[in-house]
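Worked example

This section walks through a single chain of length 181. The input is the sequence exactly as stored; nothing has been trimmed or padded.
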Amino acid sequence: EVNAVPVELDVDALPDRGWDEALERGTTGAGVPTVISAIQVLIAPGRQGQGLSTLCLERMRATAIEHGFEQLVAPVRPSWKERSPLVPIERYVGWTRPDGRLFDPWLRVHASLGAELVGPCRESMTVTGSVEEWEEWTGLAFPESGDYVVPGALELVRIDRDARVGTYVEPNVWMLHRIGV
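Given that input, the structure is written out below as tokens.
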């Protein structure tokens, strides 16, 4: 599944609220769209590792061109960041393989299509829920206030028992595809 939305964004000053901002602007019709923003590329678990993500991105890029856009931006959720939730996103995006290519496979797919790594968007997506909801969603217990490692999360989940709320602020990485120039 591939989702993208036309939005008004300045590619020279992309917001720190990546995914949330793109979705909000794209669904409210705010401003005159200047770029297409990727929202998600979802590959069924049994189909991962078959090159479908590249095909999906290529189709997204082609659709953007068909609609007259010269740039596609993507607040990318690095697929291996969940393995290092204690490492700041600013350090993670600088990791490379011995061959000099980006360490993260999903960032590498974007780069292989010519996308430029612009930098992190620290507050790309925020999820807030009650402590009870977080316990239900994760299958974990949060007996006291504090920061918790949650499987699949890119960062720690902050639990505030007094306020009875849990908050997860996910960082992403802005990738810029210059497709019409």
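What to look for: The beta strands are 2-7, 35-41, 71-76, 116-130, 146-148, 157-160, 165-178.
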